[in-house]
Hints:
Blueprint: E1 6-11, H1 19-32, E2 37-42, H2 44-47, H3 57-71, E3 79-82, H4 88-96, H5 115-129, E4 135-137, H6 143-159, H7 161-166, E5 178-180, H8 215-223, H9 243-256, H10 260-267, H11 272-298, H12 301-330
Parallel strand pairs: 1-2, 2-3, 4-5
Helix pairs in contact: 3-11, 4-5, 4-12, 5-6, 8-11, 9-10, 9-11
Amino acid sequence: MAFQERVFSGVQPTGNLHLGNYLGAIKRFVALQERYDCIYCVVDLHAITVWQDPAELPQAIRAATATFIACGIDPAKHIIFNQSQVAEHAELAWVLNRMTQFKEKVGKDRENASVGLYAYPALMAADILLYCATHVPVGEDQKQHVELARDIAQKFNNDFASSIHGRGYGAAFFPLPEPLITGEATRVMSLRDGSKKMSKSDASDYSRINLTDDADTIAQKIRKAKTDPEPLPSEEAGLKHRPEADNLVGIYAALADTTRAAVLGQFGNAQFSTFKSALVDLTVAKIGPIGAEIQRLQRDPVTIDAILADGSARARKLASETMKAVKDIVGLVRS
Length: 335
């Protein structure tokens, strides 16, 4: 069967979303809505695989939603919702659990690990497959998650091939989703260590630029960002063994919608002080309005909750049709 092209992706509501989340994912979410039907999810069920304070989690969910909207996603044309309002995510994950193999990821902390840490691959695949998504925008370090969803979809299609064909779905029920990895900053690194990914969980707030940081904070963080003593190279090959320089050039290129080569054509042989000043101006110009809009939206939780309710209802309609078909395919009795 021919599958309708559809984009799905999600963001966890844990901690402040930062420049890496924006450049690695959300900026591309915005661009894709011009070409595809898009579904963007605040994956709060994934978030609670580790402890979340119930007094703080609602605000985190609303903050992630506000970030989607502030960055330019249109909740009227596309779907923005939070995962826990669509029960079919968990329902499909249970069906898909038989398609996955156990993979230990808790290390020495197994005594405190929740079952969610073991079961998350099936839930992650269910998030994507529930909407028969054909494309998933991710950073390059997340590609393996989409590949796992593809493997699970293929196994489902193979295991239930006769049932799928007998119900008129052709050779496959689930599409094999494709990862979309584009842009100059598909993986943004820490401002303090170019070998580590920018992270909400890093102990140092100077390792990241939060989307809600004000202009003075952004400037201070960029000026304090780790660099090396050499000037910027004039060609990309000169960035190969200079991770901090490569990271800052990549950030500039992504914010300016240009290439690393073009950035080096402008700033090659310049000292970092000159380049950082330009990067401060660009980052403040691009991120400042987003942060202001996030804060404005967060002061109106009623509107955010209404957007989530509407998006969840629209998502639920799609999800319920998928689950009805899945139940029929696997042989469950339903009224």
